[in-house]
Amino acid sequence: MRPVGGSAGSGPEDVFADGRMAAVLTGLVRDTEASVGLVYLLVPGERMLRLVLISGLSREIAAPWVRIPADAPIPVADAIRERRLVWLSGLQEIAHHYPRLGIVLPYEFMLAAAPIADDTTVWGGVVLLWPVSHPPELDAREHETLDAHCRLSARLLRRAADQDPPPPHPTEPLVVHPERPSEADPALAAAALDLAERLPVGCCALDLDGRITFINTAAAELVNAGAAALLGRRPWEALLWLNDPAFEDRYRAAVVTRRPTSFTVVRRPAASLLFELYPDATGISVLIIPKAEEPTLQDGPVPVPYEGSAPGSGTAPESGPDPGSVSSSGSAPVPTLPTRPGEPVGATAVYQLMHLAASLSEAAGVRDVVELVADQIVPAFGPEGLALMSVDEGRLRVIGHRGYSDEFVERFDGQPLTAPVADTQVLSTGFPLFFPTYEDLRRAHPHAPRYEGRNAWAHLPLIASGRPVGSLVLSYERPRPFPSAERALLTSLAGLIAQALDRARLYDAEHSLARSLQTVLLPHSLTPLPGIDVAARYLPAGHGMDIGGDFYDLVRATPTSVVAVIGDVQGHNTTAAALMGQVRTAVHAHATAGASPGDILARTNRLLDDLDADRFTSCLVAEFDLAQNRLRLASAGHPPPLLRRADGAAEVLEVPPGLLLGIATDVTYDTMELPWDHGSVLALYTDGLVEAPGLDIGTAMADLAERLGASGAPDLDRLADELTLHVRDSAHRTDDVALLLVGRPPQSPPPSP
After folding, report:
1. Is the pLDDT of residue 238 over 80?
2. Range among 353-357, 407-411, 491-495, 620-624 rated most confident
3. What is the Cα 446 distance to its own chain's centre?
4. Cβ neighbours of residue 109 closer than 8 Å, sequence gap 6 or more
């Protein structure tokens, strides 16, 4: 499959442009009676999942999950990695297993995630949500329907990918509307309108995006606004006194859970209003009823309190600000960014900020931070363009961008911090700059270049521990007033990014040092004897993990023998890498002195005791003696090796498991002896090759031995690639992998003494 990207074409196998993938999802949601359906595709080469289809949910609510790292702790990513169904029966289980998801969607719903895969390829995954009225488990019919959907989707994607060239997939998620009944009879539609107009209460309809699609006269009078001014707008954006997180949060809860919900708003001196929300697959029906009681939020408190507005009250001071009066000047720094009463940040924006904060807390290196910022801010916070810059030796370097051409961005890469531009000005002052229109930008910076189609900008300094670490530039297609609530939100966003970027740079520096140390300590070449073949592989841990202490070596002990060693020092840091070098040096010295495998381990163990090392090391030593056609082995708590004999039979060798190195001082290690015949291959490996979450290590070793025996690889290099294939691109690998293969060719001439 080619990477996801570009706009959908119109070829005969363009399964997105012709609606076939959408039809499959629509049928799945209908047949399983799910409330929400999402389809993700893997982005090859990027270790990312991209959301391509949405049913029953707005793009805005789904925005934090438009792009998901393949190793993220998210249900669909786990389902894809492990090729299994993930089922979550409610909020408690979601919060326990996936706390990040529980933070952003703190509502009651059930969830299933399944991989879209065929026999050879995992294409992506599908996610379904149900109300908690669903039984606690999927029934057989739902399982069958979900499996059929995944198989059909995989076949469609396979046929599309086999084209030359394959059609591109959508760059933005497509919203799939549920199947609707045929057009209503005009007489019935007129009767329904008359019914709504006669009701003594207000009623209106919202689509899944929260926009008003219908409002009766009573509702317009109750909210004191004309129907024409409300249609097509979200209530909490159109009505100042509804600009409170309570309304938006209840709307989100209704959409996600598909359960009725309500809240009350006080408007002094006007009457209080009770809003009752009734959701279905196409939108939300809202009843608006006058009432005299004090405000209560019947479904529980709003998750986040806001200054100047009690949770759930929806009350705004009578002197609340006019949205049109917000200052539009972007030419001067803003010294403080308070959230003014009556102008709170929306619930969706706060949840998105919380989601980004949780994601950034798990980011390791700078690349992680850049990908998270670029992939989440654009869909979640609304800008059309983003440029993230880092301070490097007195210059600003562009380290990530979205919505700009590479040529445009390269013009600003490397500009000095003394340059009279907004990007550097925010770093020298420490205050953000907002330019609501192009005229504002031109007045402040007459020579600033303008990217086509951009008419508002936010320049945000990234300050960590009082030091400038970079800047973030967001650009918007339309002029934007940047009210104080949004300025506060974006400033908080910049603070989170600055702290994450500062941590990431430190991590990268330490990781680079450790990686260099381990690279130096591992052998650069393995020179065997004539009559000995050898191949080795070393795979660092999955993306974002620290350095490990895995090592291997091949030592020429005598003119007719070699000693192979493989081991794993406890820990993942520079200390582990340094201790690994000392263990490898000790094994090398004792092997060349003619010690047996058991003695090599015993002497190395005493060295660790002398060094007072506080880490344990597993190690396995194998001596290959061509003159005597024998193989001798000793183990210090290391995974047992695999032996493939000349007839192709492979087995796990039960080497006596000695104590790990570094635990006790006077320890002896038994040496096991076997014949070393022509055509034999011995596989030494570290536990990263056979360990995976939920997988029994004994079963994994047996499977590895089976693959070793069944392989038809023509040489050891090809065999090493086959044995490591299942972990080479594994997004969930959390440990280093080392593999050392030593073989004796079938027709090897005897060596000269």
Report:
1. yes
2. 620-624
3. 40
4. 35, 90, 91, 129, 130, 131, 132, 256, 257, 258
User: Helix or strand or coil: residue 620?
Assistant: strand
* Residue 688 and residue 737 in contact, taking contact as beta carbons nearer than 8 Å: yes
Query: pLDDT tier at 493 (50, 70, 90 boundaries)?
Result: confident
User: Distance (Å, rounded) from C-alpha 362 to C-alpha 30?
Assistant: 37
**Are 246 and 313 spatial neighbours (Cβ–Cβ below 8 Å)?**
yes
- Token pair, residue 356, equals 């980004």
Q: What percent of the chain has pLDDT over 70?
A: 84
CA-wise closest residue to 537 among 395, 686, 411: 686
Residue 310, C-beta contacts closer than 8 angstroms, at least 6 positions apart: none
Omega within 30 of 0 (cis) for the link into 166: no
3-state SS string over 566-583? EEEECCCCHHHHHHHHHH
Helix (H) or strand (E) segment spanning residue 433 = strand 433-435
- pLDDT over 60 at 298, yes or no: no
Distance of alpha carbon 478 from alpha carbon 438, whole angstroms: 10
Comparing CA positions, the residue from 656, 657, 631 lying closest to residue 644 is: 631
Q: How many residues does this entry show for the chain?
A: 753
Confidence of residue 124 (pLDDT cuts 50, 70, 90): very high
Structure tokens, 655: 């080497």
pLDDT of 684 above 50 = yes
CA 177 to chain centroid:
27
**pLDDT for position 521:** 63
Pairing between strand 549-558 and 533-539?
unpaired
Q: What is the DSSP string of 720-740?
A: HHHHHHHHHT-TT--S-EEEE
Is the entire prediction scored with pTM above 0.85?
no
Which of 735, 594, 605, 716 lies closest to 663 in space, CA to CA?
A: 605
Query: What are 709's two structure tokens?
Result: 């025996």
Distance (Å) of CA 510 to CA 368, 447, 752: 15, 41, 48
Across the range 703-708, mean pLDDT stands at 93
* Range scoring the smallest mean pLDDT among 6-10, 55-59, 70-74, 421-425: 6-10
Taking only the tens place, the pLDDT of each residue in 614-667 is 678 899 999 999 999 999 999 999 999 999 999 999 999 999 989 998 888 889
Once rounded to an integer, what is the mean pLDDT over residues 530-547?
Answer: 74
Please choose, from the candidates 52, 55, 79, 56, the residue with its C-alpha nearest in 3D space to the C-alpha of residue 65: 52
CA–CA distance from 148 to each of 116, 140, 414 (Å)?
10, 12, 53
Q: How far is CA 107 from the centre of its chain?
A: 21
Q: Determine if residue 645 is left, alpha or beta; phi over 0 gives left, psi from -120 to 50 gives alpha, anything else beta.
A: beta
- Pair 458, 482: CB distance under 8 Å: yes
How many other C-beta atoms are found inside a 10 Å radius of the C-beta of residue 596? 18
CA atoms within 13 A on the CB side of 35: 24
Contacts of 265 (CB under 8 A, 6+ apart): 241, 242, 244, 246, 247, 272, 273, 275, 295, 313, 314, 315
CB 680 within 8 A of CB 646: yes
The answer to whether 47 and 543 have CB atoms below 8 angstroms apart is yes
Locus of tokens 């549920």: 178
- 606 alpha-carbon distance from chain centroid: 45
- Across the chain, how many H-helices and E-strands are there? 21, 29
Q: Which of 74, 34, 80 is nearest to 57 (CA)?
A: 34
Question: Token pair 């925005």 is at which residue?
Answer: 63
Provide the residue type at 233 as one letter.
Answer: R
Q: Are 560 and 625 in contact (CB under 8 A)?
A: yes
Question: Of 385-389, 471-475, 487-491, which range is least confident?
Answer: 487-491
Instruction: Name the CA dihedral angle for 441, 445, 447, 452, rounded to a multiple of 10 degrees.
Output: -20
Burial of 749 (0-12, 13-18, 19+ CB in 10 A): exposed
Query: 269 preceded by cis ω (within 30°)?
Result: yes
